[in-house]
Design a protein that fits this description.
It contains 8 helices and 13 strands. The strands form 2 sheets. The chain has an 8-stranded mixed beta sheet with strand order 1-2-3-4-5-13-6-12. The chain has a 5-stranded mixed beta sheet with strand order 7-8-9-10-11. Strand 8 and strand 9 form a beta hairpin. The longest helix has 15 residues. Helix 4 packs across helix 7. It is of the alpha+beta class.
Amino acid sequence: MSIYNISEKNKFKIEKLFDNWTDSLIPSAISGCMGYVWCDDEVNPKSAQIINAGFCYFAGEPNEELSFNMPDDIVGEEIILVPLNGKWDRYLCDMYEERITPGTRYAIKRESDTIFNIEKLEGFISRLDNNYSIKDIECNEDIFNQAIAEKWSEDMGINFKSFDDYAKRGMGIGIVHDGKLVAGASSYTVYPEGIEITIHCMDEYRQRGLATVCGAALILKCLKKNLHPNWDARTMISVKLAEKLGYHFYRQYRVYNLVIGA
């Protein structure tokens, strides 16, 4: 048995295996924007795997080779395994046993952008204290470099090759206090129709409404560019923020955390 790093011209053949999933990291990889796609057969795939930005998705029929197919460059790092059906869920538990730790994530509905109340979003931004300033990250290399230099904020640029790559394909909102990035919302990944939003705030600046402000500003920026601001939540706190900004909760789903090489 062999697995294939599927070619660009054949990626469309695995789309049906990922039906009914709202996570934008999947179309990001299938479209060739970011990440990698493998399958069991390029002509008639029955099993597929997508690895993108620290997530590993399994679809179709369980396949042993795919289940252990992990990038060499992430040894010692954690990756989130996402089984897209019950067969893969049971299979990964059997294959990895105590090496994986179960967790939960929360899917947000992917709806028409008409769900957003523009005036409400603008209202959130207008209430930002004058001690803070808003910066477009893709226009400010210093803010981008600040983001990727700190653990709390690195997700705002970690999946891009460089600032130039980010400036070309990504977008983000940084909130700055005394010249220092203290909160931000950014494209975690990109796909043809939009971005996957990630929002972060420095611990000392939490509970000040900064996440709401930068989230609202990034959503408005996406809408102006006819891009969808996709949202998938790690915690219920993130779900509540999404709902505050106009999104609607869809469902929770099981994931597994795995440290490669552990």
